[in-house]
Amino acid sequence: MFDPKTDKFPYPMETDKHYLEVHKDRKIVFDTKYPYIDRSRPFRFRQGLARFLLNILVFHVCTVRMGLKIEGRENLKKHEEVLKNGTLSVANHVHMWDYIAVMKAIRPFRPNLLVWAPNVNGENGTMIRMVGGIPIPDSNAAAMKSFIRAVNGLLTDDKGWLHIYSEGSMWEYYAPVRPFKRGASHIACDCDKPILPLGFSYREPGRIRKHIFRQIATFTLSIGEPLFTDKNLPPKEREKDLTIRCHDAVCRLAGIDPKDNIYPAEFKDSKRVDYYTSTYGAGYKGSH
Asked: Mean of the per-residue pLDDT values for the chain?
């Protein structure tokens, strides 16, 4: 496995924290009245146009920009009968465009994506909504209940697809798979739906990409096989078990033996491990 080992990006101390800045606040309130799954005709029309542009242009640009290769698409056909009845997917979050890569990889399925609420309120919020972004509210318990009802309805009633980045944030070109939060497993257990693991790994860029375009690495997205809740376990242990199995599967798909990954499978206020440098990004103070 190629490890970019870049110090270009200011990876935070906490493994679930964001470092990209949101420069706009559109003042949208994510409360009980917000349409987390917007089924209105105008929204669906705009979303249809966005998907058309994705297919004729954006997917091709993404392939070139990321140097993207996709492996394991035969697993979509193999498990089609299961996947078409409602599915979650998880992956390591390693590039600004990696969700576009996921959308391309799992066609003809059309995923939705759980998103950090400030991103939906920011300058790219409209675009994020058009590609299926669903903001996670942090305002109050009532809003969270509305959000959960909408997400559960997407999976059970609409038999839709929900993609979740269980690491909690994006760290560009970061090789180790960070600890997973239990959100995806909680939803999967609650709705009795499978989780499809996906893993991004890196390839060393060729001379032109490296020296002319200054590209750090190119990407391979590998598609695994669906994982299911172990109903033989007590209910309180099912989420933990599924979280660990999902993390291990993503590690393997990313070219990492889970035993060699530097992070544990489960997120428990986990801190960054400086496995090759203590300085990350311009102006970043490094380890503390």
From this structure: 95
Kindly report, residue by residue over 177-207, the tens digit of the pLDDT.
Answer: 999 999 999 999 999 999 999 999 999 999 8
Residue 41 backbone phi and psi in degrees, to 5: -65, -45
**What does the pLDDT look like over 202-216, one tens digit per residue?**
999 998 999 888 899
Domain at 41-253, CATH from 3.30.450.20, 3.40.50.720, 2.60.120.260, 3.40.1130.10: 3.40.1130.10
- What is the Cα–Cα distance from 112 to 90, expressed in whole angstroms? 12
Across 3-7, 144-148, 275-279, least confident range = 275-279
